[in-house]
């Protein structure tokens, strides 16, 4: 039976002890999709959103979200991040924007949660700035694309599939 790293013997919870793990380069990338609909997509693409520059604001929100992951997700370790990158791809056919994050750190635990949080917060920021045009905006397909480093090594998913590559 696997050892549960977040459960105490007496039944409570704890942060996993990573003090004995060696430090190494940790990287993770994630993505999510914000399906805007025709009106909101057209306004975003034409830079006609009343609240201002949506993607720059979402980019900053995603970076801040990655840095605050340990405050938002119970039992996540506070991690000094070396790099957080947020990028956007406009999809005119789907009237959507795909958000991608890349996070790196030199440390004892992975940055998957930071990469996922970055995309989530960036997506929520896009929703917030576009909601006056449509309340039907959907945030979908949040997923880890890759991670590297640590005991479990590399994990990667094909962009067009949900099947992992090991």
Kindly state the number of beta strands: 6
* Separate helix tally: 4
How far the N terminus sits from the C terminus, by CA atoms, comes to 23 Å
Radius of gyration: 18 Å
Order of strands in the sheet with most strands: 2-3-1-4-5-6
Question: Please, could you describe this protein's structure?
Answer:
With 166 residues, the protein is α+β, with helices and mostly antiparallel strands. It has one domain: Alpha-Beta Plaits. Helix content is 27%, strand content 30%. The chain contains four helices and six strands. Strands 2-3-1-4-5-6 form a six-stranded antiparallel sheet, with helices on one face. Strand 5 and strand 6 form a beta hairpin. Helix 2 packs antiparallel against helix 4. The longest helix is centred in the C-terminal third of the chain and has 19 residues, at 112-130. The protein is elongated, with a radius of gyration of 18 Å.
């Amino acid at each position: 039976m696997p050892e549960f790293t977040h459960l105490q013997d007496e039944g409570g919870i704890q942060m996993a002890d990573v003090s004995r793990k060696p430090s190494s380069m940790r990287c993770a990338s994630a993505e999510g999709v914000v399906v805007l609909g025709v009106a909101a997509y057209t306004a975003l693409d034409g830079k006609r959103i009343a609240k201002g520059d949506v993607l720059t604001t979402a980019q900053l929100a995603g970076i801040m979200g990655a840095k605050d992951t340990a405050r938002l997700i119970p039992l996540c370790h506070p991690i000094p991040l070396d790099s957080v990158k947020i990028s956007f791809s406009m999809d005119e056919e789907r009237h959507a924007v795909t958000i991608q994050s890349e996070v790196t750190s030199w440390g004892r635990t992975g940055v998957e949660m930071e990469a996922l949080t970055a995309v989530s917060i960036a997506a929520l920021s896009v929703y917030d700035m576009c909601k006056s045009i449509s309340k039907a905006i959907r945030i979908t397909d949040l997923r880890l694309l890759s991670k590297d480093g640590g005991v479990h090594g590399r994990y990667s998913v094909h962009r067009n599939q949900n099947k992992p590559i090991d």
